[in-house]
Amino acid sequence: MQQNAISRLARPHFDWVLCLTAYALAIFGVLAVTITNFNPELGANRSFFQLVMDSGNGRWQAIFVLISPIAVAGMMMLNYQLLGRIWPMLYIGSCVLLLVVLFTDSIAGMSGWFQVLWDRTIQPSELSKVAIIISLSSELSRHKQPIPNWKYFLRLCAHIGIPLLLIIMQPDVGTMLVFIVIFLTLLLVSGCSLKLWLGIIGTGIVACVPVMLWLQEKGDFRWRRITAFIDPTHDTTGSGFQILNSMAAVGSGGIKGVGMFVPGTMTHLNYVPENHTDFIFSSIGETMGFIGCFILLALYITLFLRMLMLSYNTPDRYGRLVIAGVMSMLLFHVFENVGMNIGVMPITGIPLPFISYGGSNLIANMAGIGLVLNVTQRKQGARNAHARR
């Protein structure tokens, strides 16, 4: 029976398990965002639809979920092998957007958004994650050896370095870390020498030392975030405020939570800043308790295990790298976001995939899911194309 299941995954198919799990998370996200935007004056004795419609953020999050199938279908429309061949267009386009956005008005000290209709914004760095997964996966699958020589390795460094520099200039530390994780994951999965891989990490750590010293001397807010992570009680009303309040909110939920639409909770009093975006996990922990957190994490584990199995059962290297890239992107988001909500990781402004409020992140995540579905649905053709080479 197990071999039959594996053989089914190895054949071309639309993976309903992956798709339905992603949308279960997205619907969970609509509920979580609605809870953070609940208006106690209107009362909780209403249907879920009414609660969502009466919540500004919840209503928009529901709209983002409803239009997200366009992103999934768009990524599935073209054969992923074709996407791999036109990666220079996707790569250059994303770099141009990352450059142009630097000249827009900053929001919270960052120049990372384009203003569109009404008060809506688009964050190109979110969409560029999918473009970099496609382009790097295509590059690393060109040769039998992922890095045939040092010249090619320098080319790969420039490949990731250009968008990385543009993101640092915004500055967006969270997205920078996501790009680095994607790069390191794809190198490892492609068969890169472990010695070289560890050498890259070591070089990166050494390179961070002067940057950290510079941030410390400057007294930059990023340095204060790092020190707050180490000891949040050092500045309880400043850099440690979010971490301490988030941990208090998560801890107050207990097993069952204090209730999803209960007036006077830390969530509804905005006790934790940005509890609808970066710190939404603290709201889930408080209102739904351990049970709600367990359900959420179980959905994530299902999603990641499914992608791991799909990657393992994908015959061509390019398709396997694409799935690994999407999985690493989402996995790091979850690890970092949940970690900073419970005080075990520094604050980096990384949203919780499918859950945190925001259209750009949700659409980018769904586009990533669509890309994985593209691979699973066309992998037989990929095998034949690979064999002809």
Describe this structure in words.
This protein is mainly alpha-helical. The protein has one domain. It has 15 helices and two strands. It has helices at residues 2-10, 16-36, 48-53, 56-77, 80-85, 87-100, 124-140, 150-168, 173-189, 194-218, 221-230, 241-252, 280-312, 317-341, 359-388, and strands at residues 114-115, 121-122. It has a two-stranded antiparallel ribbon. Strand 1 and strand 2 (121-122) form a beta hairpin. Helix 7 packs parallel to helix 9 (173-189). It is globular and about 60 Å long. The two termini are 34 Å apart.
Number of strands: 2
Low-confidence stretches: 381-389
Average pLDDT over all residues:
87
Q: Looking across the biggest beta sheet, what order are the strands in?
A: 1-2
Structural class of the secondary structure composition? mainly alpha
What is the CA-based Rg, rounded? Answer: 21 Å
Total number of distinct structural domains: 1
The span between the termini is 34 Å
Strand fraction band? Answer: under 5%
Shape: globular
User: In percent, how helical is the residue content?
Assistant: 55-70%
- Helix run count: 15
Give a quick account of the main beta sheet: strands, pairing sense, barrel closure: 2 strands, antiparallel
Following the backbone from N to C, one meets helices and strands in this order, namely HHHHHHEEHHHHHHHHH
